[in-house]
Amino acid sequence: MIFNTDIFSQYIDSEIVGVNFPAELTINNVSVDSRSLLNDEHTLFFALVGKNHNGHHYIAELAQKGVRYFVVDQLPIVLHKEAVYFKVSDTLLAFQKAAAFHRASFDLPVIGITGSRGKTVVKEWLNFLLGQDYKVIKSPKSYNSQTGVPLSIFGIKESHSLGIFEVGISLRGEMQRLQPIVQPSIGILTAITDEHNEGFISIEEKIQEKLVLFSSVDVLIAEEGPIIRSLTSDKPLMTWSLYNTDATVYGSLTGDVLSIAYAEQPLFSVQIPFTDVISVKNMMSCISVMLYMQMPIEAIVTGISQLYPVELRLQVTSAINNCTVIDDAYSADFQSLVIALDFLEKHKISKKKTIILSDLFFNGDNEEEYYLSVLQLLKSNNVTRIYGVGECISRFLADCPGVFLYETTDEFLQKISLDEFAEETILVKGSRAFRFDRIVSFFETKTHETVLEVNLNSIQYNLNFYRSKLKVGTKVMAMVKAFGYGSGSLEIAKLLSHENVSYLGVAFADEGIELRKSGVKANIIVMNPEINAFPAMIAYDLEPEIYSIRELKAFLKVARARTCYKYPVHIKLETGMHRHGFTTAELDELIAILRFTNVVEVQSIFSHLSSSDMPEYREFTLDQIELFTKNVNYLSEALNINPIRHILNTSGIYNFASFQMDMVRIGIGLYGVGNDPLEMEQLRNVTTLKTRIMQIKEVENNESIGYGRRYRVEGSRIVATVPIGYADGIPRAWGNNGGYVLINGKKAPIVGAICMDMLMVDATNIGCKEGDEVIIFGEQLPVTIIAEAIQTIPYEILTNISQRVKRIFYQD
Ligand SMILES: *Cc1c(COP(=O)(O)O)cnc(C)c1O
């Protein structure tokens, strides 16, 4: 896009700072992410300020890399002589105004979607339903926030003939800012639930706020009902309903056949692929839009009968030969490719990046140019190897070196050998039609049905929850010891270093070495360093916890031999836990050694609370903190140093935030488990352990189940066998004694003793079949419940989940 510099500057209320700025700006890329590999001389960079990120910190670095146009609210101290700075008072506001400026230069119909549930599904479905007849630009994934909406809007180009954008809000006043950016002509209000309610007084107020998006629509499509009627008397309304025949569009469902009447005339019946209420409601929104747009009935019927489940998350799994696979086998268009490549960069476990890419959804004029720009995008993202699958990609990229081409997924699977892949991160990205899920399973190592799903967004959310309890500037050390509390350390360490935590904590040196080998650059502290691991620790830049004189001397010896200078170390003080650390009596000896050496430097001094989660030991905790403070002061004065001080773990932050000092160490809370029920309510669930029913049988009265005949059947029961047992880490104590799993959302009691690889449940009143999903723990059945029932702690259950259980990481 090309902007007139002056007009643009006026529009966003900025003052231009820079020596000779051009009269026109040629912008190919609008960016708010300093890490994006697309940032170049045609990037317009908005320095946004968030809770934990400040885009202004990266301006000098970006200018170095060639970025020339910056929107800032604070000028850098040193101005780059070729850069142009647009100085504004609020960069987010300027970003939104710039998007509105871009939007205003296009005159195309736009469908705006808001509501609590179903926005993304309705958007994706409409894209599918209307994509044949229109050149659609839509928000990628669920980009519907204060920054996501503008980013989506910047995607609009001359060639598009229809926009479909979703908009989400959580606070009052937000919609006011987003309306001018989207300017929808067709409005869709999806279901309103009471999620994200904090910012609103009542459901009416919430709907009212959402309706701001529709202030100048030609039509508003919503479910028939009294609230919507009373709030929208001034708007052109088109309603739909599954219950009320007064609605403009009335749908009645018999079995899987949905019959539609429009303006009281029966129109058509269609067999629909899913019949749950939420899906049918989302279909009604789509049908209403198509009727309003006067699409032919046949097109509506065919389209609706072919709707598919919308999969929005990108999943990361481990694969053969130390590869990692990112599974994005559900969509293939330019914008979602950009997002997937960003995701690949953030989550790559090995340096080598590979992509397997199908034909892409194309709706412009010059298809060859389009594929060449895709290739350019892949190259600028440093993708080492490119595999293209499909007729179009094969045709247009035929002569490009380094691109391997296959006409079909079958051909790819036949010709490729697994030996060609090792130590690389493979992005598998294709549209649904290509069935790339087959490629994903081709690469998979463990193919058990049992998986531990790890929601990376929730970890991010939980981290921010604890950060919100801290003062600005308090550092965070994230504990990823014990394989990330059982969840998987590599992926989580990647995420956390991306979130700018100051340190990662591992238990043993080899855990740290593994992180380093896969490219984690963050500072890593080894909490239980073993003396024979010191040389390796120094080689891999891992910082030891020093807890005794003997250990310190041993470390100094190794470090001296390697001529280390001021190697960072962390001193552990004993304050009441009696595990390890220096007691008060040992401090003088410690000082005597440290005072005369340059080989190491004390980075931080810390201690650990034994009972921060136990209110009954509050006094004891305060005594620990007092002793710690006294001893840190003593050491710091004697050594004339000012180290980072830290003592709080997760529960410490929750219960003793005023003692956060310079840093806190968060462990279990990141993984969604709080030691206090109120605390836990505010966290998001991270891990879900699930599997599938392998067999169902009827068992007669008086028969017994499992080893030792520990369970006797009374009356006839339906028993389901589930392929997970104590060797997978399910505590045996959870069996036959009140323990249960969830099948289709219902409790199924575990009957009989839990076996090594299997367990049996009573599924009599559940209505389930072989192959149905079984939840062992997760959101609906938190590990804390299991831990409490069998008198252990959630830490033990999480870290015991066996490595044979495959971990799947995903992000919305
Ligand atoms: C494991 C550990 C933590 C984290 O504790 P949580 O209760 O999981 O937050 C903090 N500090 C030290 C020294 C630890 O060993």
Automatic annotation (TrEMBL):
Query: Per the record's keyword annotation, is Ligase included, yes or no?
Result: yes
Q: What's its job?
A: Catalyzes the interconversion of L-alanine and D-alanine. May also act on other amino acids.
List the EC numbers from the record: 5.1.1.1
| Pathway info | Amino-acid biosynthesis; D-alanine biosynthesis; D-alanine from L-alanine: step 1/1
Q: Any one cellular component term from GO for this entry?
A: cytosol
Q: Where does substrate bind?
A: 579, 756
| CDD domains (alphabetical) | PLPDE_III_AR
The question of whether Ligase is a record keyword is answered with: yes
Q: Name one Pfam family in it.
A: Ala_racemase_N
Identify the keywords attached in UniProt to this record, alphabetized: Isomerase, Ligase, Pyridoxal phosphate
Identify which residues the record assigns to the active site: 481, 707
Biological-process GO terms, alphabetical: D-alanine biosynthetic process
**Which terms in the Gene Ontology molecular function aspect does this entry carry?**
acid-amino acid ligase activity; alanine racemase activity; ATP binding; pyridoxal phosphate binding
Cofactor field: pyridoxal 5'-phosphate
Q: What is this protein called?
A: Alanine racemase
